[in-house]
Amino acid sequence: MEHSPAIDVLHVVEAFGGGVAAAVRDYVRDLPEARHHIVCRLRPEAEALGAQWRQDFASVTAITGGQLGAVRTVRETIRELHPAVVHSHSSYAGVWARVAGIGLDGFRSVYTPHAWAFAREDKSRLERAAFRGVERVLLHRTDVLAGCSRAELAPARAWRSDVELVHVPNIAELEADSTPTLVQQPSDPRGLLIVGSGRLTAQKDPAWFRAAVRAVRAEGHPVRALWVGGGDETMQADLESAGIEVTGWIPPAQVERHLAEADLYLHTAAWEGFPITVLEAAQLGRPIAVRSIQAFHEVSLPVVLDRPSDLAERWERIAEHATREQMVSQQDRALRENCAGVQHDRLAQAYGLEVRPWGVGGRGAPGRQSATQIVDGVTRETKGSAELAGYAGPSR
């Protein structure tokens, strides 16, 4: 059987770390029919990923300059690699990639916002309007909007742009030794364990988590509370002063161990693309409650909260063993599209690749792989090609 050379895909990432890093690595491992390259800045917490992450990519280029330097680095990398696809992730990277591509042809421009910048509640109305205007203009330099949730596609649909819209769902790849566990009967006299997760920033809104925990305790219900992640020291101190333990930055395997211990995973972010920690908690069989934000509007999760006090109002029911078992069953149905097979086929569609659908020709779910550590600098190492059924060609 003849083998076609793999196409080259260049991922442009504003800050490699957290959920975006997890999403990009899932794309890479889920679509081996392409050679994946990355140009990125590195977040401090990225070091928690381990030592071998760069082996996921055929090449890694680190950005160290400012905004103009980033555009220059992306443009130079496009010229060097001649990729068939340039896939930018999040707002700044979306600007860098689409500005860097001006005057360059031969590639398909794919953009995933991973949460629109104009949804940021920590910005003024004027700033958010400016973000919206920039995104709307840059959409004309975009071939495919690859939303990580259906809700993320809604703005482009409302703008009536001719950009192709593809829902590429986020997935969760657990560590090899992570397995789902059954919902347990309460046994700790200190109460059920509520777990939150993420970088301590305005986006993840740990103050909302703290308020929800306090509301439950104020109603006389003993609960333990844990925040998995690190970041802003003032936010961490606020959580700890409310009797909430904070882990700081820890490797992915430890994150999963903490999630697996949760009696309830509470996701409190003020805005999101689609949070991978929610998917990880679901895969681990943990009951989930989420804050009502746009990312979840088209997903029928069983417990959606408008206010922190809503958790206290519903706590007696949530604390029941049977209720939490029902929550897990409903979550599984609601998140059935967030799987490797769907992501593979949708990503191939976004890239213009004609590949065998997932499950055809012996294809199955990819093996779980350990996460690894961030390595700075530039590495060039070409990997072998993968079998393709065909490539539709660039749109640009």
Automatic annotation (TrEMBL):
UniProt keywords, alphabetically: Glycosyltransferase, Transferase
Signal sequence extent: none
InterPro entries: Glyco_trans_4-like_N, Glycosyltransferase_grp1
GO BP annotations, alphabetical order: carbohydrate derivative biosynthetic process
Keyword Transferase appears in the UniProt entry: yes
Residue ranges occupied by any Glycosyltransferase subfamily 4-like N-terminal domain in the UniProt entry: 18-169
An example molecular function term from Gene Ontology annotations: hexosyltransferase activity
Protein name in the entry: D-inositol 3-phosphate glycosyltransferase
Organism: Kocuria palustris PEL
Organismal lineage: Bacteria, Bacillati, Actinomycetota, Actinomycetes, Micrococcales
